[in-house]
Amino acid sequence: DGATDAPDGNADGNITMADPSTIQTEEGNITLDATNGTVTHIVNANSDGDGVRGDVAITARGTAGIQDTGASALITADDVNLTSGGDIGSLANPINMTANSLTAAITGLGNMFFSAMGDILINLSAPAGDIDFTGTGNITVGLASARAGHVLLSAGLSILAPVPSGTTLRIFARDFIRLLANGGTIGTPSDALRTHMLSETPIQVFATGSVDALSIHLIGNLLPRTALSFLTSPPPGLALFLFRAGGGILGGQNITN
């Protein structure tokens, strides 16, 4: 409790933390490794609250996956790294965190669900499932790959590509891609967010902000044919998709390939 050393928890089976149990360090790293599944409550690598955080790594090698105890559970870290053979979180009970970056991968069948406070960089891979991520700040997308399912990202502010964005594809999905920038933009004028739909389902977008009269800047794939669909209402600024424009003063029409 309050130690700066790095606690390591290894279990031949499950690791289960019940409310109100806590694992914490002032700024040391925390590692949990279970051959089956883990249930977390409070995992805090910044117990003194000074903003200097350690990292948290949790591995659940079996199909039980990584879950937490509920709304009061929280992972606090600089970098969070999660690896699971099954689901990470659930639709009713996502994994809650405050972190600068999150890397998560499912090695088997499973979906991942997260709720984050503040700005965060994400690198997520669920090759046989879905990705649902909700954040209160900016979401910067290094990778969100759900090649057999959907990607749903909902940001309190903006959904952004790393700077410079280059030509790297950031979001992959088959069922749908839904991007909600509830207090900002999707991409920026100088850095587009690159997506790849593995079906002809339109990419669904919502943005409330604009930068230099631009609200959405996406580059998608030409094949399969994709389109951009505005959810609820068109954005206040222009939407650029595959170098075509819509939204803003152009009205509410969707953009087709």
Describe what this molecule looks like in 3D:
The protein is mainly β and 257 residues long. The protein is 0% helix and 46% strand. The strands form 3 sheets. Strands 1, 4, 7, 10, 12, 14, 16, 18, 19, 21, 23, 25 and 26 form a 13-stranded mixed β-sheet that branches. The radius of gyration is 19 Å and the shape is globular. The N terminus is likely disordered.
Radius of gyration: 19 Å
Beta strand count: 27
Distance between the termini: 56 Å
Q: Which percent range describes the beta-strand content?
A: over 45%
How would the global form be characterised?
Answer: globular
Describe the largest sheet: 13 strands, mixed
Structural class: mainly beta
- Percentage of residues assigned to helices: under 10%
N-to-C series of helices and strands: EEEEEEEEEEEEEEEEEEEEEEEEEEE
- Unreliable segments (pLDDT under 50, ≥5 consecutive)? 1-5
Number of helical stretches of at least 4 residues = 0
Look at the structure and give the mean pLDDT.
90
Record keyword descriptors for this entry.
single chain, 257 residues, mainly beta, 13-stranded mixed sheet, 11-stranded mixed sheet, disordered N terminus
Q: Which SSEs are present, and which pair or pack?
A:
Elements: E1 8-11, E2 15-16, E3 22-24, E4 30-34, E5 37-40, E6 42-44, E7 56-60, E8 65-68, E9 74-76, E10 79-84, E11 95-98, E12 101-106, E13 112-116, E14 120-125, E15 131-135, E16 139-146, E17 151-155, E18 159-160, E19 171-173, E20 177-181, E21 193-197, E22 203-207, E23 214-219, E24 227-230, E25 238-241, E26 244-247, E27 255-256
Parallel strand pairs: 1-4, 2-5, 3-6, 4-7, 5-8, 6-9, 7-10, 9-11, 10-12, 11-13, 12-14, 13-15, 14-16, 15-17, 16-18, 16-19, 17-20, 19-21, 20-22, 21-23, 22-24, 23-25
Antiparallel strand pairs: 24-27, 25-26
